[in-house]
What does this fold into?
Amino acid sequence: MDKFEFTEHSHRRYNPLTGDWVLVSPHRTKRPWQGKVEKHSQDERPQHDPKCYLCPGNERAGGINNPDYKDVFVFQNDFSALVPDIPEGKYEKKDLFRAESERGFCKVICFSPRHDLTIPEMEVEDIKKVVDLWCSEYEAIGALDYINHVQIFENKGDIMGCSNPHPHGQIWGQHSVPGEPAKEAKMQKAYFQTNGQTLLGDYVDEELKSQERILVENDHFVALVPFWATWPFETMIVSKRPVQNLLQLTDDERLAMADVYKKLTVLYDNLFEVSFPYSAGIHQAPTDGEEHPEWHLHMHFYPPLLRSATVKKFMVGYEMMGNPQRDITAEQAAQRLKDLPKVHYKTLK
Ligand code: ZN
It folds into this structure.
């Protein structure tokens, strides 16, 4: 038998943030690469769409009009999944049936008044205003005594179930810490107690040494394909300095985060020359009033596209029953993204 090589042989990879495993099958990529076959006609959108409920001045549900905003704009979601004013309560039956009330609320952030732009096409200075708004919202929402977790996220593209192309994201504040960050908190805490450093701080140091999976880097942030990536072109933005949450970022670091956010999403758009869909979200310390030296601020990008603008990855079959599986390795995905032009494809035409 040959020596084990993870470039060649099927293997599983451990995710120290979640404690989960992903099965990697590099041999399967030896099947011929389909490449990108179809060129999508660019969806030409107007700068202002009178029918868009996120554009400045337009009417939203319930007859409220958006202000004539000039950069970013935040409002309480007219159809929130969480509401602040509910009675506290519990339901318990035999240990088998458990429910408890959950208070919170949902906000929407418009990234730009321009209906036709997305993050990779915006100026870094304007993306910085999005980062600034994340910071002020995290602070204000987190300060509420019944809110212990603030989830900032972005759902981009109609295949991600996002029906409105106007550039926007969401912020949900809630009483309990949900599953994903709770898993990551546990693993980061265990690592910090053993090593006295944050898990992602040590991890990024190693990645910077090898450079193999680093896509974008500036003075304060990196974007990389994590070693344990699950989605075909999954990435993370991580601060180089161990900061627990957005509020600990200096003004320079906020600008650096905006810069990496843009550069990463430019690579994404250039991969198949389409507006690249993904779900992205920021993980950071809970707002429970405690110190969390184990937490290290980061942002996940989970994009579903696999081989072209339309061929996407589904987590079904073995992946639903067993655990996630992938064909293209993290290193192959990183190489493909690194080889792409750094300038947005639309501006090259
Ligand atoms: Zn995370």
Q: What stands out?
A: Residues 44-348 form a domain with the HIT family, subunit A fold (CATH 3.30.428.10). The CA atoms of residues 63 and 100 lie 33 Å apart.
